[in-house]
Amino acid sequence: MHFLCACGYCFHDNSDALSFKGYILADQDEDEMWNILGRAEKPHDDTIDIASDVMNLLHRAMYQCPECGRMYIEDAAAKYELVRFTPCEHGEPIPDVNRKMLLSAHGDKWRGYLYAQWDDPKTDYCEHKGIIFPICNLQFDDLSFDDFSAFEKRYFDIFRAMTEKNILHRARMTVNRETRHSWEE
Q1: How far apart are CA 7 and CA 48, in angstroms?
Q2: What is the pLDDT of residue 78?
Q3: Are 94 and 88 in contact (CB under 8 A)?
Q4: Which of these, 20, 27, 152, 172, has the minimum number of CB atoms within 10 Å of its CB?
Q5: Could you tell me if 138 and 167 are in contact, meaning their C-beta atoms sit under 8 angstroms apart?
Q6: DSSP string, 143-181
Q7: Mind listing the pLDDT tens digit for each residue in 84-100?
Q8: 22 has which bridge partners?
Q9: How far apart are CA 164 and CA 53, in angstroms?
Q10: pLDDT given at position 122
Q11: What predicted TM-score, i.e. pTM, was given to this entire model?
């Protein structure tokens, strides 16, 4: 899903572990969630069904704009159209609203992922031969490459930065669809 915030920020919901996305559990559904999770404590063969049942309760997504703080919540009654909420107090917009309300409960200490992909020759669906995807609460620049040595160096620079900050859970670099580097905590 892609959509624009009223401030012009472009949301791209095309991966997992997004820092601006969360899910809503209605208070009325909490008992049902605990009942579903209770099934997991008993011998069973339906782990996927249990996870699916929990996710069905949490299927209403919400997004927060990292630029202005507006919230967008899926309205299940309206075929999951997004409804916008603007942070305000006494009817006045709040300019200094927390723009990180949907971060993990671990906040900036959340351990993310680092993926990198190199394809030689370049694929039709990508502008460059190599691209690096750091999925974490830090911002990294220079993530697209056409020079392999620069690509590999940048991957390991980001890998070191994330491991030194203790914010990396898993990393993988593939070169021509073969794993060249793999790491997991």
Answers
A1: 39
A2: 78
A3: yes
A4: 27
A5: yes
A6: -EES-HHHHHHHHHHHHHHHHHTT-EEEEEEEETTEEEE
A7: 998 888 878 787 888 88
A8: 62
A9: 37
A10: 85
A11: 0.71
Tokens of 64: 């927060």
Residue 47 has pLDDT above 70, yes or no: no
Tokens of 119: 């394809």
Phi, psi of 72 (to 5 degrees): -125, 125
Q: Which tokens is 153 given? A: 């160096």
pLDDT score at 48 = 64
Owner of token pair 């491991």:
163
- Distance spanning both ends of the chain, measured CA to CA: 31
In terms of DSSP H, where are the helices of the chain?
30-39, 47-57, 148-164
Asked if 1 and 11 touch (Cβ cutoff 8 Å), the reply is yes
d(CA 125, CA 97): 38
> Which pairs count as long-range contacts for 79-82, CB under 8 Å and 24+ apart, including other chains?
82/3
Residue carrying the six token digits 């624009």: 4
For residues 65 and 4, is the Cβ–Cβ distance under 8 A? no
Length of the chain: 185
- CA 46 vs CA 32, 40, 43, 102, 178: distances in Å: 17, 8, 9, 30, 33
State whether residue 113 is helix, strand or coil.
Answer: strand
Residue 148 · residue 160 · CB < 8 Å: no
